[in-house]
Amino acid sequence: MAPDRSPSRKSSAASTSRSGGSLRHIMKKGPWTANEDALLMEYVRKNGEGNWNAVQRNSGLMRCGKSCRLRWSNHLRPNLKKGAFTQDEEALIVNLHAKFGNKWARMASQLPGRTDNEIKNYWNTRLKRRQRAGLPLYPVDIQPLNQYQPQNLQPSPSLVSFITAVDGKPKHSTPISIFDMFNPTTPPASTSQNQPLPSFLSDPSPNFKPAHNKNGASLPMPSLQFNCLNFGIANTVPVSHASFAQNDTGSGSNMGLPAIQSLVPETTSSGSDYMIATSSDADDRDEGHDHQGLSHGNSGLLEDVIDESQALTRAEKPKETCLNAEKSQGEFLWDYKLMEDVGGNVGEESDLNAILDEPYKDSTPTHSSIGVETTNASSQKSNPVEDDLFNLLDDIPLPVTMPDWYDGNGNDIDGQCSNWIEGDAGKENHQPEPSYSPVATTPEITDNNWTDGASYWKNLPGIY
DNA sequence: AATTGAGCCAACCGCGGTGTA
DNA sequence: CTACACCGCGGTTGGCTCAAT
User: Fold this and answer.
1) Looking at strand B, which nucleotides approach a protein CB closer than 7 A?
2) pLDDT for res A48
Protein backbone atom coordinates (compact mmCIF):
# COMPACT_ATOMS: atom_id res chain seq x y z
CA MET A 1 0.00 0.00 0.00
CA ALA A 2 1.26 3.36 -0.87
CA PRO A 3 -1.06 5.91 0.55
CA ASP A 4 -0.79 9.48 -0.48
CA ARG A 5 0.97 8.77 -3.66
CA SER A 6 -0.82 11.66 -5.11
CA PRO A 7 -2.49 14.59 -3.48
CA SER A 8 -5.72 13.96 -5.24
CA ARG A 9 -7.09 11.06 -7.07
CA LYS A 10 -9.63 11.14 -9.79
CA SER A 11 -11.23 14.35 -10.66
CA SER A 12 -12.44 15.52 -7.35
CA ALA A 13 -11.28 15.34 -3.83
CA ALA A 14 -14.67 15.41 -2.30
CA SER A 15 -18.20 14.72 -3.14
CA THR A 16 -21.54 14.29 -1.57
CA SER A 17 -23.04 10.97 -0.98
CA ARG A 18 -25.23 9.74 -3.75
CA SER A 19 -27.87 8.64 -1.38
CA GLY A 20 -27.93 11.89 0.44
CA GLY A 21 -30.10 11.30 3.44
CA SER A 22 -28.04 11.30 6.54
CA LEU A 23 -24.85 11.75 4.63
CA ARG A 24 -25.03 15.32 3.65
CA HIS A 25 -21.50 16.14 4.51
CA ILE A 26 -18.87 16.76 1.98
CA MET A 27 -17.09 13.47 1.61
CA LYS A 28 -13.44 13.26 1.05
CA LYS A 29 -12.25 11.23 -1.85
CA GLY A 30 -8.93 10.06 -3.02
CA PRO A 31 -6.17 8.20 -1.26
CA TRP A 32 -6.48 7.45 2.37
CA THR A 33 -4.11 8.93 4.84
CA ALA A 34 -2.56 7.07 7.71
CA ASN A 35 -4.66 9.13 10.05
CA GLU A 36 -7.83 8.11 8.30
CA ASP A 37 -6.73 4.52 8.39
CA ALA A 38 -6.17 4.76 12.09
CA LEU A 39 -9.55 6.30 12.62
CA LEU A 40 -11.24 3.61 10.63
CA MET A 41 -9.36 0.81 12.32
CA GLU A 42 -10.18 2.21 15.67
CA TYR A 43 -13.79 2.47 14.77
CA VAL A 44 -13.96 -1.08 13.52
CA ARG A 45 -12.11 -2.31 16.55
CA LYS A 46 -14.74 -0.78 18.75
CA ASN A 47 -17.82 -1.36 16.71
CA GLY A 48 -17.03 -4.15 14.38
CA GLU A 49 -17.58 -4.33 10.69
CA GLY A 50 -20.70 -3.20 9.03
CA ASN A 51 -22.90 -0.18 9.29
CA TRP A 52 -20.31 1.67 7.33
CA ASN A 53 -22.25 4.82 6.96
CA ALA A 54 -22.18 5.12 10.70
CA VAL A 55 -18.44 5.34 10.54
CA GLN A 56 -18.66 8.76 9.10
CA ARG A 57 -21.26 9.81 11.59
CA ASN A 58 -19.46 8.48 14.60
CA SER A 59 -15.81 8.62 13.88
CA GLY A 60 -15.35 11.93 12.25
CA LEU A 61 -14.03 10.37 9.14
CA MET A 62 -15.08 12.38 6.18
CA ARG A 63 -15.49 9.31 4.08
CA CYS A 64 -18.61 7.75 2.78
CA GLY A 65 -19.55 4.32 3.98
CA LYS A 66 -18.67 2.76 0.72
CA SER A 67 -15.23 4.15 0.86
CA CYS A 68 -14.78 2.95 4.42
CA ARG A 69 -15.93 -0.51 3.58
CA LEU A 70 -13.64 -0.68 0.61
CA ARG A 71 -10.70 0.58 2.54
CA TRP A 72 -11.31 -1.86 5.31
CA SER A 73 -11.92 -4.88 3.20
CA ASN A 74 -9.11 -4.22 0.80
CA HIS A 75 -6.43 -2.88 3.08
CA LEU A 76 -7.13 -2.77 6.73
CA ARG A 77 -8.86 -5.91 7.73
CA PRO A 78 -6.74 -8.53 9.39
CA ASN A 79 -5.50 -11.65 7.68
CA LEU A 80 -5.01 -9.84 4.47
CA LYS A 81 -2.27 -11.33 2.45
CA LYS A 82 -0.06 -8.78 0.87
CA GLY A 83 2.44 -9.16 -1.85
CA ALA A 84 2.52 -10.93 -5.13
CA PHE A 85 0.38 -13.90 -5.81
CA THR A 86 2.07 -17.21 -5.39
CA GLN A 87 2.18 -19.63 -8.23
CA ASP A 88 -0.42 -21.71 -6.53
CA GLU A 89 -2.65 -18.73 -6.19
CA GLU A 90 -2.14 -17.77 -9.77
CA ALA A 91 -3.01 -21.23 -10.93
CA LEU A 92 -6.06 -21.20 -8.76
CA ILE A 93 -7.11 -17.86 -10.15
CA VAL A 94 -6.85 -19.15 -13.65
CA ASN A 95 -8.86 -22.19 -12.79
CA LEU A 96 -11.43 -20.22 -10.90
CA HIS A 97 -11.76 -17.73 -13.67
CA ALA A 98 -12.24 -20.51 -16.13
CA LYS A 99 -15.00 -21.72 -13.95
CA PHE A 100 -16.60 -18.54 -12.70
CA GLY A 101 -15.63 -15.84 -15.12
CA ASN A 102 -15.41 -12.35 -13.75
CA LYS A 103 -16.82 -13.27 -10.42
CA TRP A 104 -14.09 -11.67 -8.43
CA ALA A 105 -15.73 -11.89 -5.10
CA ARG A 106 -16.44 -15.52 -5.58
CA MET A 107 -12.90 -16.10 -6.59
CA ALA A 108 -11.66 -14.12 -3.66
CA SER A 109 -13.64 -16.31 -1.35
CA GLN A 110 -11.50 -19.16 -2.54
CA LEU A 111 -8.31 -17.28 -1.95
CA PRO A 112 -7.99 -16.51 1.72
CA GLY A 113 -6.40 -13.21 2.41
CA ARG A 114 -6.90 -11.96 -1.07
CA THR A 115 -9.42 -9.40 -2.13
CA ASP A 116 -11.60 -9.32 -5.14
CA ASN A 117 -9.91 -6.13 -6.17
CA GLU A 118 -6.52 -7.75 -6.10
CA ILE A 119 -7.70 -10.66 -8.14
CA LYS A 120 -9.48 -8.41 -10.54
CA ASN A 121 -6.43 -6.26 -11.02
CA TYR A 122 -4.25 -9.25 -11.42
CA TRP A 123 -6.52 -10.79 -13.95
CA ASN A 124 -6.96 -7.64 -15.93
CA THR A 125 -3.26 -7.07 -16.26
CA ARG A 126 -2.73 -10.69 -17.07
CA LEU A 127 -5.49 -10.51 -19.58
CA LYS A 128 -3.97 -7.53 -21.26
CA ARG A 129 -0.58 -9.09 -21.30
CA ARG A 130 -1.75 -12.30 -22.78
CA GLN A 131 -3.94 -10.62 -25.29
CA ARG A 132 -1.12 -8.41 -26.36
CA ALA A 133 1.02 -11.45 -26.73
CA GLY A 134 -1.65 -13.15 -28.76
CA LEU A 135 -1.89 -15.88 -26.21
CA PRO A 136 -5.03 -17.52 -25.03
CA LEU A 137 -6.29 -16.50 -21.69
CA TYR A 138 -6.09 -19.97 -20.38
CA PRO A 139 -3.40 -22.53 -20.74
CA VAL A 140 -4.14 -25.03 -23.41
CA ASP A 141 -4.99 -27.61 -20.85
CA ILE A 142 -7.66 -25.49 -19.30
CA GLN A 143 -10.75 -24.86 -21.24
CA PRO A 144 -13.07 -22.38 -19.69
CA LEU A 145 -16.15 -24.13 -18.60
CA ASN A 146 -18.55 -21.31 -18.90
CA GLN A 147 -17.26 -18.97 -21.43
CA TYR A 148 -15.64 -18.54 -24.71
CA GLN A 149 -12.37 -16.91 -25.15
CA PRO A 150 -12.45 -13.47 -26.58
CA GLN A 151 -9.37 -13.75 -28.69
CA ASN A 152 -11.52 -14.85 -31.51
CA LEU A 153 -15.15 -15.16 -32.05
CA GLN A 154 -15.18 -18.82 -32.66
CA PRO A 155 -17.13 -20.71 -30.13
CA SER A 156 -14.96 -22.23 -27.54
CA PRO A 157 -15.18 -25.94 -27.10
CA SER A 158 -17.22 -25.39 -24.05
CA LEU A 159 -19.60 -23.17 -25.86
CA VAL A 160 -19.88 -25.65 -28.62
CA SER A 161 -20.64 -28.31 -26.15
CA PHE A 162 -22.92 -25.89 -24.43
CA ILE A 163 -25.07 -25.62 -27.46
CA THR A 164 -24.55 -29.08 -28.72
CA ALA A 165 -26.28 -32.19 -27.67
CA VAL A 166 -24.46 -34.34 -25.25
CA ASP A 167 -24.01 -37.02 -27.78
CA GLY A 168 -22.10 -34.62 -29.89
CA LYS A 169 -24.89 -34.14 -32.34
CA PRO A 170 -27.42 -31.41 -32.22
CA LYS A 171 -30.69 -32.82 -31.15
CA HIS A 172 -32.57 -30.09 -32.80
CA SER A 173 -32.27 -29.07 -36.30
CA THR A 174 -31.00 -25.58 -35.69
CA PRO A 175 -29.44 -25.26 -32.33
CA ILE A 176 -27.28 -22.36 -33.32
CA SER A 177 -29.26 -20.63 -35.93
CA ILE A 178 -32.04 -20.24 -33.49
CA PHE A 179 -29.96 -17.61 -31.85
CA ASP A 180 -31.03 -15.44 -34.68
CA MET A 181 -34.64 -16.16 -34.21
CA PHE A 182 -35.19 -12.70 -32.93
CA ASN A 183 -34.17 -11.41 -36.22
CA PRO A 184 -37.10 -12.50 -38.31
CA THR A 185 -35.19 -11.89 -41.45
CA THR A 186 -32.72 -14.53 -40.59
CA PRO A 187 -33.78 -17.86 -41.92
CA PRO A 188 -32.77 -20.95 -40.09
CA ALA A 189 -29.38 -22.03 -41.10
CA SER A 190 -27.67 -25.28 -40.88
CA THR A 191 -25.69 -26.01 -37.83
CA SER A 192 -22.05 -25.37 -37.89
CA GLN A 193 -19.78 -25.38 -34.97
CA ASN A 194 -17.62 -22.91 -36.74
CA GLN A 195 -20.38 -20.50 -37.05
CA PRO A 196 -19.65 -17.18 -35.44
CA LEU A 197 -21.18 -16.55 -32.14
CA PRO A 198 -24.75 -15.49 -32.24
CA SER A 199 -25.28 -11.85 -31.90
CA PHE A 200 -27.10 -11.98 -28.65
CA LEU A 201 -24.13 -13.41 -26.92
CA SER A 202 -22.79 -9.95 -26.97
CA ASP A 203 -26.10 -8.35 -26.49
CA PRO A 204 -26.09 -6.40 -23.29
CA SER A 205 -29.77 -7.00 -22.96
CA PRO A 206 -29.95 -10.69 -23.32
CA ASN A 207 -33.16 -11.35 -21.53
CA PHE A 208 -35.93 -12.14 -23.81
CA LYS A 209 -39.50 -12.78 -23.24
CA PRO A 210 -41.43 -15.35 -25.09
CA ALA A 211 -43.38 -14.02 -27.95
CA HIS A 212 -47.07 -14.32 -27.65
CA ASN A 213 -49.75 -14.23 -30.20
CA LYS A 214 -52.92 -12.30 -29.85
CA ASN A 215 -54.48 -15.02 -27.81
CA GLY A 216 -51.75 -14.87 -25.30
CA ALA A 217 -50.43 -18.23 -26.24
CA SER A 218 -46.78 -18.48 -26.69
CA LEU A 219 -45.57 -18.58 -30.15
CA PRO A 220 -43.55 -21.61 -30.93
CA MET A 221 -40.15 -21.33 -29.50
CA PRO A 222 -37.23 -23.02 -31.00
CA SER A 223 -35.47 -25.06 -28.47
CA LEU A 224 -31.90 -24.77 -27.55
CA GLN A 225 -30.36 -28.04 -26.84
CA PHE A 226 -27.39 -27.49 -24.72
CA ASN A 227 -25.16 -29.39 -22.52
CA CYS A 228 -25.77 -27.65 -19.29
CA LEU A 229 -22.29 -27.68 -18.01
CA ASN A 230 -23.04 -25.90 -14.85
CA PHE A 231 -25.40 -28.53 -13.75
CA GLY A 232 -24.10 -31.46 -15.54
CA ILE A 233 -27.22 -31.94 -17.46
CA ALA A 234 -28.41 -31.79 -20.93
CA ASN A 235 -31.63 -30.08 -21.39
CA THR A 236 -33.85 -28.56 -23.88
CA VAL A 237 -34.78 -25.02 -23.33
CA PRO A 238 -36.56 -22.56 -25.45
CA VAL A 239 -33.81 -20.34 -26.53
CA SER A 240 -35.56 -17.28 -25.33
CA HIS A 241 -34.92 -18.44 -21.83
CA ALA A 242 -31.32 -19.13 -22.20
CA SER A 243 -29.54 -15.95 -21.59
CA PHE A 244 -25.94 -15.10 -21.46
CA ALA A 245 -24.12 -12.65 -19.41
CA GLN A 246 -22.85 -9.79 -21.33
CA ASN A 247 -19.80 -10.49 -23.31
CA ASP A 248 -17.71 -7.68 -24.45
CA THR A 249 -16.06 -9.28 -27.35
CA GLY A 250 -14.57 -6.06 -28.40
CA SER A 251 -12.40 -5.44 -25.45
CA GLY A 252 -12.19 -8.98 -24.38
CA SER A 253 -12.01 -7.81 -20.88
CA ASN A 254 -15.44 -8.86 -19.98
CA MET A 255 -15.36 -12.54 -19.64
CA GLY A 256 -19.04 -12.99 -19.45
CA LEU A 257 -20.56 -16.23 -18.51
CA PRO A 258 -23.39 -17.96 -20.07
CA ALA A 259 -26.07 -17.90 -17.53
CA ILE A 260 -28.76 -20.42 -17.38
CA GLN A 261 -32.33 -19.52 -16.97
CA SER A 262 -34.66 -22.28 -16.29
CA LEU A 263 -38.28 -22.29 -16.91
CA VAL A 264 -40.98 -22.27 -14.42
CA PRO A 265 -44.38 -22.84 -15.84
CA GLU A 266 -46.39 -19.89 -14.84
CA THR A 267 -49.56 -21.36 -16.00
CA THR A 268 -50.25 -24.89 -16.80
CA SER A 269 -53.24 -24.44 -18.98
CA SER A 270 -51.34 -23.90 -22.12
CA GLY A 271 -48.13 -25.34 -20.97
CA SER A 272 -46.44 -22.65 -22.86
CA ASP A 273 -46.40 -19.69 -20.60
CA TYR A 274 -43.22 -19.31 -18.74
CA MET A 275 -41.51 -16.89 -16.58
CA ILE A 276 -37.85 -16.40 -16.30
CA ALA A 277 -36.90 -18.18 -13.18
CA THR A 278 -33.21 -17.79 -12.77
CA SER A 279 -30.42 -17.01 -12.78
CA SER A 280 -28.42 -14.68 -14.87
CA ASP A 281 -29.56 -11.46 -13.39
CA ALA A 282 -29.21 -12.63 -9.91
CA ASP A 283 -26.06 -14.38 -10.73
CA ASP A 284 -24.48 -11.20 -11.84
CA ARG A 285 -24.75 -9.83 -8.41
CA ASP A 286 -25.61 -12.40 -5.91
CA GLU A 287 -22.49 -14.35 -5.86
CA GLY A 288 -21.00 -11.67 -3.77
CA HIS A 289 -23.51 -12.36 -1.13
CA ASP A 290 -22.02 -15.72 -0.71
CA HIS A 291 -19.97 -14.21 1.97
CA GLN A 292 -22.97 -13.19 3.86
CA GLY A 293 -24.75 -16.40 4.24
CA LEU A 294 -27.79 -18.12 3.06
CA SER A 295 -30.12 -15.67 4.54
CA HIS A 296 -29.45 -13.32 1.75
CA GLY A 297 -31.45 -15.28 -0.67
CA ASN A 298 -28.97 -16.09 -3.23
CA SER A 299 -29.44 -17.76 -6.50
CA GLY A 300 -25.76 -17.56 -7.00
CA LEU A 301 -25.25 -19.52 -3.87
CA LEU A 302 -27.25 -22.37 -5.17
CA GLU A 303 -25.30 -22.13 -8.30
CA ASP A 304 -22.18 -22.43 -6.28
CA VAL A 305 -23.55 -25.50 -4.66
CA ILE A 306 -24.38 -26.97 -7.97
CA ASP A 307 -21.03 -26.04 -9.35
CA GLU A 308 -19.25 -27.75 -6.60
CA SER A 309 -21.65 -30.60 -6.61
CA GLN A 310 -20.98 -31.17 -10.21
CA ALA A 311 -17.28 -30.89 -9.82
CA LEU A 312 -17.26 -33.30 -6.98
CA THR A 313 -19.66 -35.57 -8.66
CA ARG A 314 -17.57 -35.72 -11.74
CA ALA A 315 -14.60 -36.40 -9.63
CA GLU A 316 -16.40 -39.45 -8.49
CA LYS A 317 -17.78 -40.48 -11.80
CA PRO A 318 -15.37 -39.22 -14.33
CA LYS A 319 -16.10 -41.92 -16.79
CA GLU A 320 -19.77 -41.38 -16.67
CA THR A 321 -22.25 -38.65 -17.16
CA CYS A 322 -21.27 -35.38 -18.61
CA LEU A 323 -17.73 -36.20 -19.30
CA ASN A 324 -18.43 -38.78 -21.91
CA ALA A 325 -20.28 -36.29 -23.92
CA GLU A 326 -17.41 -33.90 -23.87
CA LYS A 327 -14.85 -36.51 -24.54
CA SER A 328 -16.94 -37.83 -27.33
CA GLN A 329 -16.23 -34.60 -29.04
CA GLY A 330 -12.59 -34.90 -28.35
CA GLU A 331 -12.88 -32.23 -25.76
CA PHE A 332 -11.92 -32.16 -22.20
CA LEU A 333 -13.58 -29.71 -20.01
CA TRP A 334 -11.30 -27.66 -17.95
CA ASP A 335 -12.50 -29.01 -14.69
CA TYR A 336 -11.80 -32.46 -15.84
CA LYS A 337 -8.38 -31.28 -16.76
CA LEU A 338 -8.11 -29.56 -13.47
CA MET A 339 -8.72 -32.80 -11.76
CA GLU A 340 -6.08 -34.37 -13.85
CA ASP A 341 -3.68 -31.56 -13.39
CA VAL A 342 -4.08 -31.39 -9.73
CA GLY A 343 -4.62 -34.93 -8.83
CA GLY A 344 -3.00 -36.62 -11.70
CA ASN A 345 -5.70 -39.18 -11.50
CA VAL A 346 -9.18 -38.31 -12.35
CA GLY A 347 -11.56 -39.73 -9.92
CA GLU A 348 -9.35 -39.60 -6.96
CA GLU A 349 -11.56 -37.86 -4.59
CA SER A 350 -8.91 -36.91 -2.16
CA ASP A 351 -7.02 -34.85 -4.61
CA LEU A 352 -9.96 -32.98 -5.82
CA ASN A 353 -11.16 -32.47 -2.35
CA ALA A 354 -7.84 -31.06 -1.50
CA ILE A 355 -8.40 -28.43 -4.09
CA LEU A 356 -11.98 -27.79 -3.26
CA ASP A 357 -11.68 -27.98 0.44
CA GLU A 358 -8.51 -26.13 0.96
CA PRO A 359 -9.95 -22.69 0.62
CA TYR A 360 -12.70 -23.56 3.01
CA LYS A 361 -10.32 -24.76 5.56
CA ASP A 362 -8.38 -21.60 5.36
CA SER A 363 -11.30 -19.36 5.10
CA THR A 364 -11.54 -16.62 7.55
CA PRO A 365 -14.95 -15.87 8.92
CA THR A 366 -15.25 -13.35 6.17
CA HIS A 367 -14.93 -16.09 3.70
CA SER A 368 -17.04 -18.64 5.33
CA SER A 369 -19.68 -16.64 6.96
CA ILE A 370 -22.31 -18.78 5.47
CA GLY A 371 -22.21 -20.74 8.61
CA VAL A 372 -22.16 -24.13 7.04
CA GLU A 373 -19.74 -26.44 8.60
CA THR A 374 -16.74 -26.76 6.46
CA THR A 375 -16.25 -30.32 7.43
CA ASN A 376 -19.17 -32.59 7.43
CA ALA A 377 -19.64 -35.90 8.98
CA SER A 378 -20.78 -37.38 5.75
CA SER A 379 -17.38 -36.81 4.33
CA GLN A 380 -16.25 -39.69 6.41
CA LYS A 381 -18.52 -42.07 4.67
CA SER A 382 -17.29 -44.54 2.19
CA ASN A 383 -18.62 -42.61 -0.73
CA PRO A 384 -19.52 -39.37 0.88
CA VAL A 385 -19.16 -36.89 -1.87
CA GLU A 386 -21.23 -38.73 -4.32
CA ASP A 387 -23.87 -39.51 -1.80
CA ASP A 388 -24.17 -36.03 -0.53
CA LEU A 389 -24.08 -34.38 -3.84
CA PHE A 390 -26.58 -36.61 -5.43
CA ASN A 391 -28.73 -36.29 -2.42
CA LEU A 392 -28.45 -32.58 -2.61
CA LEU A 393 -29.46 -32.61 -6.19
CA ASP A 394 -32.25 -34.93 -5.29
CA ASP A 395 -33.61 -32.41 -2.92
CA ILE A 396 -33.73 -29.57 -5.31
CA PRO A 397 -37.35 -28.89 -6.06
CA LEU A 398 -38.35 -29.25 -9.61
CA PRO A 399 -41.64 -27.61 -10.32
CA VAL A 400 -40.87 -27.95 -13.94
CA THR A 401 -42.44 -30.84 -15.60
CA MET A 402 -39.87 -33.36 -16.42
CA PRO A 403 -38.67 -33.06 -19.94
CA ASP A 404 -39.07 -35.95 -22.26
CA TRP A 405 -35.43 -36.82 -22.07
CA TYR A 406 -35.81 -37.58 -18.45
CA ASP A 407 -36.10 -41.29 -18.00
CA GLY A 408 -37.49 -41.13 -14.55
CA ASN A 409 -34.40 -42.43 -12.92
CA GLY A 410 -32.50 -39.29 -12.53
CA ASN A 411 -30.84 -39.68 -15.84
CA ASP A 412 -31.54 -38.19 -19.10
CA ILE A 413 -31.67 -40.27 -22.13
CA ASP A 414 -27.99 -40.01 -22.50
CA GLY A 415 -27.37 -41.14 -19.02
CA GLN A 416 -26.34 -37.77 -17.80
CA CYS A 417 -27.08 -36.64 -14.37
CA SER A 418 -30.19 -34.62 -14.59
CA ASN A 419 -31.00 -31.92 -12.21
CA TRP A 420 -32.97 -29.10 -13.50
CA ILE A 421 -32.63 -26.09 -11.35
CA GLU A 422 -35.49 -23.79 -11.14
CA GLY A 423 -35.70 -20.26 -10.09
CA ASP A 424 -37.17 -20.43 -6.67
CA ALA A 425 -34.57 -22.87 -5.68
CA GLY A 426 -32.13 -20.24 -6.55
CA LYS A 427 -33.99 -17.51 -4.82
CA GLU A 428 -34.71 -19.31 -1.65
CA ASN A 429 -32.16 -20.21 0.93
CA HIS A 430 -33.97 -18.23 3.50
CA GLN A 431 -33.92 -21.08 5.91
CA PRO A 432 -32.39 -20.04 9.14
CA GLU A 433 -28.93 -21.27 9.47
CA PRO A 434 -27.36 -23.42 10.46
CA SER A 435 -30.19 -25.91 10.38
CA TYR A 436 -30.93 -25.98 6.74
CA SER A 437 -34.10 -27.79 6.08
CA PRO A 438 -34.57 -30.13 3.23
CA VAL A 439 -36.06 -28.43 0.32
CA ALA A 440 -39.48 -29.65 -0.41
CA THR A 441 -39.79 -31.67 -3.48
CA THR A 442 -42.67 -31.78 -5.77
CA PRO A 443 -44.77 -34.89 -5.89
CA GLU A 444 -43.64 -35.80 -9.32
CA ILE A 445 -40.13 -35.63 -8.14
CA THR A 446 -40.90 -37.69 -5.14
CA ASP A 447 -42.34 -40.27 -7.38
CA ASN A 448 -39.05 -40.64 -9.03
CA ASN A 449 -35.99 -41.99 -7.47
CA TRP A 450 -34.64 -38.57 -6.87
CA THR A 451 -35.49 -38.55 -3.28
CA ASP A 452 -34.08 -41.76 -2.10
CA GLY A 453 -31.50 -39.80 -0.26
CA ALA A 454 -32.02 -37.76 2.82
CA SER A 455 -29.20 -35.35 2.50
CA TYR A 456 -29.88 -31.82 3.47
CA TRP A 457 -28.16 -28.60 2.80
CA LYS A 458 -26.25 -28.91 5.95
CA ASN A 459 -24.69 -32.04 4.66
CA LEU A 460 -23.10 -30.24 1.84
CA PRO A 461 -19.44 -29.71 1.79
CA GLY A 462 -18.41 -26.36 3.09
CA ILE A 463 -19.75 -23.49 1.22
CA TYR A 464 -17.90 -20.31 1.52
C1' DA B 1 18.29 12.54 -19.53
C1' DA B 2 13.82 12.38 -21.54
C1' DT B 3 10.10 9.75 -23.30
C1' DT B 4 7.01 6.02 -23.63
C1' DG B 5 4.39 2.19 -22.53
C1' DA B 6 3.33 -1.64 -19.56
C1' DG B 7 2.28 -3.10 -15.12
C1' DC B 8 0.44 -2.32 -10.83
C1' DC B 9 -2.57 -0.56 -7.62
C1' DA B 10 -6.06 2.13 -5.15
C1' DA B 11 -10.16 4.14 -5.37
C1' DC B 12 -14.50 5.70 -7.42
C1' DC B 13 -18.87 4.84 -9.85
C1' DG B 14 -23.11 2.73 -11.11
C1' DC B 15 -26.09 -0.76 -10.38
C1' DG B 16 -28.81 -4.04 -8.11
C1' DG B 17 -30.10 -6.73 -3.97
C1' DT B 18 -31.63 -6.59 0.76
C1' DG B 19 -33.48 -4.85 4.97
C1' DT B 20 -36.42 -1.82 7.35
C1' DA B 21 -39.43 1.86 8.66
C1' DC C 1 -46.72 -1.95 -0.52
C1' DT C 2 -43.49 1.57 -1.02
C1' DA C 3 -39.62 4.36 -0.33
C1' DC C 4 -35.39 4.78 1.41
C1' DA C 5 -30.92 3.53 3.28
C1' DC C 6 -27.47 0.39 3.31
C1' DC C 7 -24.49 -2.87 1.38
C1' DG C 8 -21.69 -5.32 -1.90
C1' DC C 9 -20.12 -6.36 -6.50
C1' DG C 10 -18.10 -5.62 -11.02
C1' DG C 11 -16.39 -2.22 -14.12
C1' DT C 12 -13.63 1.51 -14.78
C1' DT C 13 -10.44 5.24 -14.08
C1' DG C 14 -6.26 7.38 -13.22
C1' DG C 15 -1.84 7.97 -10.80
C1' DC C 16 2.62 5.95 -9.74
C1' DT C 17 6.66 2.99 -10.74
C1' DC C 18 9.83 1.00 -13.64
C1' DA C 19 12.01 -0.78 -17.58
C1' DA C 20 12.90 -0.19 -22.38
C1' DT C 21 14.05 2.92 -25.97
Assistant:
1) 6-19
2) 84
